[in-house]
Each structure stands twice: as C-alpha cells, then as structure tokens.
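Appendix B, record 7
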Amino acid sequence: MIVLSLLSLIPAWADAEVTASVHGRAPAGQTVHVMIRVRNPTPEPISYPDLTNRPWLVQFETTDPEGTKRTLFSTPPEHDTDLTWTLAPDGQRWARFEVPTSDAWPVGTAKLRVKIGDTALPQTRIDVVKLEPHHIDDQG
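Structure tokens (predicted):
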C-alpha cells in the first residue's frame, strides 16, 4: 500500500495532517479505493471539512494505462452544507473513496493524484494487473 502525505496548506485547514492510502497494484476490472485520513497533530481541537458528507471536495486526477487524463469528482450541490469534522488533539477521521472509471482501466500503469480543495497530495503509480490463478485443481 502506498501512503501519500501532505500537511494541508489551506489556511482554514492549515493545522490538519492529510494522507491518502492506495494500493500500488489493482486487479483489472475492479475499482481502485483510496482511504483519506485527516489527523489533528496539534494540542487544540480543529475543524476540517466533513469529506464523508461533502465528497465533492475530493478530486481525482487520473492518467489511465492508455494515457487518457481525467479529473474526476462528484458534482457539488447548488448550496454547500459547510459540514465539518471537529478533531480532538491527536484525533483523526477517515473517509473511503472509489476512483471513478478505475474499474475500466486496462492492464498497465496508471497514475493518480488526490486533491482536496486546493491541496494536491503527491502523485502515485498504480499497476493494474490481470489476476491469474496460481493453481487449478483438476478434480473432475
């Protein structure tokens, strides 16, 4: 599993430590999952946008194994809810996302960058592989 980490640079979220975890290999035909962790490394409570209820704040910049580039995200509502998480000192919250269209990626190497608001986490590489059985039992 690859972990991407960046301290948020957006002033309102500046104290949060944000990481995204994604496996470096993915089976062709299955959706790639990303786990985003937001942690409060400070001694005081902080607020951070509730990514679970505001998924439009998360964008995926992808390059599939064929070289097609896309920026994918949920359509924001007409009026944002402004829901936030309150994180206690050393507290954390997790949000799990599926990368849209990743289940259609062919075998090869894909690239993924997760963006939250104006903060871009480092780009990662995902090897999309065809699963082959290691053994076939011929009892028949």
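Remarks on this record: Confidence is low (pLDDT under 50) at residues 5-12. The first strand starts at residue 2 and ends at 7.
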